[in-house]
Specification:
The complex is a heterodimer of chains A (149) and B (120). Chain A is an all-alpha fold. Chain A contains six helices and no strands. Chain A starts with 5 loop residues before the first helix and ends in a 6-residue tail after the last helix. With 120 residues, chain B is of the alpha/beta class. Chain B has a single domain, classed as Cupredoxins -  blue copper proteins (Immunoglobulin-like, Sandwich), CATH 2.60.40.420. Chain B contains one helix and eight strands. The chains are: A mainly alpha (149), B alpha/beta (120). Chains A and B meet through helix 5 and helix 6 of A and loops of B.
């Protein structure tokens, strides 16, 4: 193994996807929590905190998706996935889209200088948190974190 | 009397023949087993078992995934001597080792899972 080989750096015993995934998960869940608190307490500071957490979460999904797809293409040679791997891929893509959609709803409201954020975002955020959590659970199962390994 | 003697002779010849053919068949089975002997490695609980397997040249090694999650079997050399597809639960992968040497391998999904086949 060559230390400057990109495949070695990204995958072999340096599974960057597994490391990077924690950032969007944590930022998104905390962002949604802040948003729910901002809605409940009517505090602009919490709403601003929610927005920036969601912004960084949306940005953090980009390297996660890239490293996940590269792991599939390079380590598994892009073979047709099935079972838990396929579920993880599909739910991971859905999670990434939902994180970006939630951030976009907040961004549009801020751009339009709306006083109140649209109410329909809250069920979307709740569903997104559940899907992100399930995707993370499957990922943990695959990597052995949620299992006996 | 002559009839009973001839029946006894026929029975003895039959028994002798069965014994000879039986032994011959047993010998051919043994030689066939020697030619295509197989060894099994079980994948379970995020590990290969046995971790190190020593086999004679010409042995086919079969890996069986007994774990709940997918694994692969990939040799560490470059170019890869053997590389399985993703093995789901109870799926198998076989490779016949025709050359002597040490063949370390790992699971590309879980690189900490390693094993070795020593071919003598």
């Amino acid at each position: 193994m060559h230390p400057f080989d990109i495949k070695t750096v990204i995958f072999a015993k340096h599974a960057q996807h597994v490391v990077l995934i924690h950032f969007p998960i944590a930022l998104f869940i905390i962002g949604v929590l802040f948003d729910f608190l901002a809605q409940w307490k009517r505090q602009r500071l919490l709403a601003a905190a929610a927005y920036y957490n969601l912004l960084v979460a949306a940005i953090a999904t980009i390297p996660v998706v890239i490293t996940g797809i590269l792991a599939w293409q390079w380590e598994l040679e892009g073979q047709k996935l099935k079972g838990i791997l396929l579920m993880h891929l599909v739910m991971g893509c859905a999670s990434s889209v939902l994180i970006c959609v939630v951030w976009f709803i907040h961004r549009r409201a801020r751009r339009n200088q709306e006083e109140v954020l649209p109410g329909f975002r809250l069920p979307i955020e709740a569903v997104a948190v559940v899907i992100v959590a399930l995707t993370g659970h499957l990922g943990g199962f695959l990597s052995g974190v949620n299992g006996p390994g | 009397m002559r009839r009973s003697v001839s029946i006894a002779g026929l029975a003895a010849a039959l028994l002798l023949g069965m014994g000879v053919f039986g032994t011959g068949r047993k010998g051919s089975v043994t030689s066939a087993q020697e030619k295509t002997s197989t060894m099994e490695v079980k994948i379970d609980n995020f590990g290969f078992g046995p971790v190190t397997l020593t086999v004679p040249v010409g042995t086919a090694v079969t890996w069986t995934n007994r774990d709940d999650i997918p694994h692969t079997v990939v040799s560490t050399d470059d170019p890869k001597t053997f590389k399985s597809k993703v093995l789901d639960t109870d799926e198998k992968f076989s490779f016949t080792f025709s050359k002597a040497g040490a063949y370390p391998y790992f699971c590309s999904i879980h690189p900490k899972m390693t094993g070795k086949v020593i071919v003598q």
